[in-house]
Amino acid sequence: MLRRLVPAVVVAVLLVTSPVAAVAAVPPDSGDGAGGTRSDGAGNGSAAGSASGSASGGVESGAGGSGAAGDAGGAANDTRTVPGVGGIIDAAPATDGGRYLVGAIGLRETNSTVTRVAPNGTVRWTRSFGSPNESRRVTAVVSGDSPGAFLLEVSGRPGPASDETPPTLRLRRITADGDLAWQRSLGNATSVVRGPVLVATDDGVALARTVDSEPPAARLTRFAHDGTLLGDRTYRGGVPRALAETDDGGLVVVGQREFRRGWYLRLDGDGDIVRNETFATGDRRIVGATPADDGDLLVAGSAEVRGFSGSDPWVARLDADGTVRWSRTYGTTDREYPRTAVATDRGILLLSTRDTGTGARSTVLTHVTAEGEVATGAVAAERGLTSPVPTGDRSVDLYGFALDRENRTATGIARTVDLPRPAAPDWPVHDTVTSNRTFYRGENLRLPGDANRTYGLYQLPGEYTEFDQPRLVRRVGPTTEGVPAFETATLRSGKYAFRAPGSFWYRIDDGRYELVEDPGAAAFTLAEQDIWRIQPRRSVLETFAGDRLLHARVESDPASMTARVGLARMNGSSVGQATLADALAPGADERVDDDRVFTVGDRAYGTVELRDDRNLTLDAGALPAGLYEVTLTGNRTADATEPATATLVVVTEERNVTLTPVNRTLSVPQNGTATTDLTLAGTDAGLRAIRIDAERRGQPALRLDLELTDALDTGSLRSGAGIGAGRSTADIQTLDVREAPNGSFAVASLAVSQSQFGRDRSDGETPDQQTVTVGLTYAVDAEGIPYSVAQDETITVVLEDEDGN
Asked: Other C-beta atoms within 10 Å of 41: how many?
C-alpha cells in the first residue's frame, strides 16, 4: 500500500532557476554559504491570519493562522495580505494546524524565506537565505518523523557567454527552531520542474530531477535526516512530474514521455525497478499524485481532449502494477492549465489556472474522490492564488502573491475558500441495466426498481465459491428525477451485479427483478469502448483544386459503434452545429438529421456510425479555411474514454509557400553529422503555425533531426524522430509562432548522420549515397488561414568512410 505523504512535520523548499544540462555527483559540502538571517515571531500574527481590510494593511494578531473560515479578523473567502514573507510560492500544513510558508522577497532580490506559523496565526520564526542567484520557485512538502525543514536552493547565476557559471543545487537541513543542521552540494542545476518532485520520507528526503538525455531520464537522490547519502541513481524512461513513497520504503515516480504520454516508474526499497512503463497514450500534463487505498495511486493533471490545448482537468487511478483502473476528464468550457495537486481526506484536489480567452484568468479547484467522483462543485478564485492547503473536505486555504511590477516587489496573499457539495449529477441516463448483457464503461445506467430504494452494486470475482465475498463498489439511489441511476466511468472493466440484503442477488430482465442465489445469473458486463487512432489518407486538403473529402481509417474496439465527432479550430473554438452537420454529410444533397448534431457546453459534436470497415469520411469542402483537430470517441462513453485525434488542414486558395534546402548535397562523415539550413519563402501574410517533415527510405540508414532556428519566436513547439533499418523520419511543429520575419529566411536546420543501423562497408551492394526528402506539411498565416505548399525537395547524401572517402 502506498502511504499518504502529508501526516507529519517536515517542510522541503525547492528554489530553481533556468535549467542547464549538466548533472553532477553528490559529494558532502564544506559548509560554506550557510548564511541566512533569522527573526523570531513574538506573537505579532504577521502571517497567514485574516486581514481586516486593504491590501496595504497588516494582518491581525491571532486571526487564524491556518486560514480557517470564520475567524474574528475577517470574513471567510476574503483575500488577505500576508506581510513579512514576500511572495508566497508554496505552503504546507504542519501537524499542529499551523503552516509553513515559503517564498521570495521581491522579483530580483537574492533572498528566499521560510516562515513557521502557529495555529493561531503568530509567527514562530522566519528564516531568510541569501544567495547570489535569483530565487524563482519554491516547493514545500510536509512528512517524515523528524521535525525541521529541507531547503533545496540554486546558487549562482550564469555569467557572460564567455564565462558562464552554471547554477548549482544545494540541499540544506533546517532544524525545528530554524537553525542550519547541515548542507550538501548537488552539483550543477538541471531541469527541476515545478511540482512535487521533492518529498520528505520516513528516512529523510527524496528528490527527482530530469537528466538531459535521449531518451529522457530521471535521477533520484535520497538523503537521511542526518545528511547521509542513501542512494543516487538514474532511470531512463521519462521526465518526472510527481513523486510518492510506498509502505516498503520504495518510490513511485509519475511523469511524461514522448509528447506527454503518461509514464509510471515504481521502485522497491533498494531502488531497483519494479515497473517502468507508459500508462496513458493521450496528451497529458501531470502535476501531482497521491496514494490511495490498496497500493493504488491517484494521478492528476490535464488532458487535451478538445483539440489545440483545449485541456480539461483529468484524474486517473493506477494500481500497483501501473495499470489504469479508470481515467476521466472533468469537462469545462474554458481552457484550464493545471498547476499543482494535493491530497485530501477524500481523494485529490487539483488546482488549475483558467483562461477564458479574453485575457481574464482565475484559479480553479477540481476536487475528485478516490473513486473518481466529483467531491465538490467547481470553485474559482482570483489569479495568483496557486498553493492550496486543504483544511478538511469542506474548505481549503489558498496562498500566493500579488506583484507590484513598478517597485519590483511581491506581497503574500491568502484566502480561505469553501468547497461546496456537488450539485446533482447532470448527465443523461442511457439505458436500463439487464443481467447477462454487455455495457460499456462510461455509459450512465438506470435501474427499473423502486425509486425510493438504495441498491448495492458489487464487483464479482472471476470464480465463485461459497466463500467468495464480492466487494461493494457503489450505493445506487434515486437521482433528482426519482430514478435509481449510476455512472460507470470509474468502474473497472469486469462483471457486476446488484445484491439484496442477505445472500440473494437481483437478476434484472425486462424491467423486473428476480431474486437468485447465483451471482453469475444476475451479472452484467462492463467492457471497454475505445477509439485509439484515426489514420487519414491525407491530412491537407486543397479544396480549391477539387480535393474535398477526408478519408480516414479508424482503429477501434469494438468495430461497430456510434462515434462522436468534434472539430476544433486552431484557436480552440468549435465549429458551429450547422457547419458540422454539412461536414458530416459528404456528397449528400441534404444536411444530416438535426438529432445527429448537438452541443455540449460551447462545443458542437456530431455522431457517425462506424461499421466493420471502420471508415470515417468528412467533407472538408463544407469547412472554412483553417487548421482543425478532429476528435473521435464513443458517443455513449465520451466522459470516460480518450478521444482519438487527427489534424485536418483545409486550404481554400492557392498561396504557395516554399521550403528550400540551402545545400542539396551533403557529405556525412562516418562518425559525424552534416547539416543544412532550410529557407522559407512566401509567407507574406505572417506565420502562426508550421510543420516540417523529413524522411529517408531504404539503405543505407541515416538519422535525421530537425530544429527551428532563432528566426521564429515560438511559445511552444514539438519535435519527433524515428529510425529503423528501412525508414527514418523527423518532424518539428509549432502552433504558437509569436513573431516571424518577412521575406525569405532560414526557418529550420536539418542534421543528417550515419546511424547505428548504418551500412556494412564490406557489403559491396550497400550504396554510398542516399536521398532525404524534406518539405512543409502545412504553414498557417497570422490569421489562422493555411497557405498552399509546394512539392517536397530532395537532398542527396553522400556517406564517407573512416578515411573521408
From this structure: 19
Measure the CA–CA gap between 677 and 692, rounded to whole angstroms.
12
CA dihedral for 471, 477, 480, 481, sign (positive or negative): positive
Question: Can you spell out the DSSP letters for 597-659?
Answer: EEEETTEEEEEEEE-TT-EEEEEGGGS-SEEEEEEEEESTTTTTSPPEEEEEEEE-S--EEEE
Q: Which residues contact 799 (CB under 8 A, 6 or more apart)?
A: 668, 670, 700, 754, 759, 768, 769, 770
Distance CA 652, CA 626 (A): 9
Distance of CA 639 to the CA centre of its chain: 17
> What DSSP assignment string belongs to 128-160?
EEE-SS--------B-SSS-EEEEEEEE-----
pLDDT tens per residue, range 675-717: 999 999 999 999 999 999 999 998 888 999 999 999 999 877 8
Rounded to two decimals, the pTM is 0.73
Question: Could you tell me which of 776, 775, 690, 788 has the C-alpha nearest to residue 734?
Answer: 690
* Contact between residue 112 and residue 448 where contact means Cβ atoms under 8 Å apart: no
Domains (range + CATH), the chain: 10-418 (2.130.10.10), 431-527 (2.60.40), 531-651 (2.60.40.1930), 656-799 (2.60.40.680)
Asked whether the beta carbons of 237 and 216 are under 8 A apart, the reply is yes
Q: Phi, psi (5° rounding) for residue 519?
A: -65, -25
Name the phi and psi angles at 620, rounded to 5.
-70, -20
Q: For residues 585 and 731, what is the distance between their CA atoms, to the nearest angstrom?
A: 33
Residue 476 pLDDT greater than 50, yes or no: yes
* 8 A C-beta contact, residue 183 and residue 172: yes
Residues 6+ apart with CB under 8 A from 236: 213, 215, 216, 217
**Interatomic CA distance for residues 412 and 400, integer angstroms:** 6
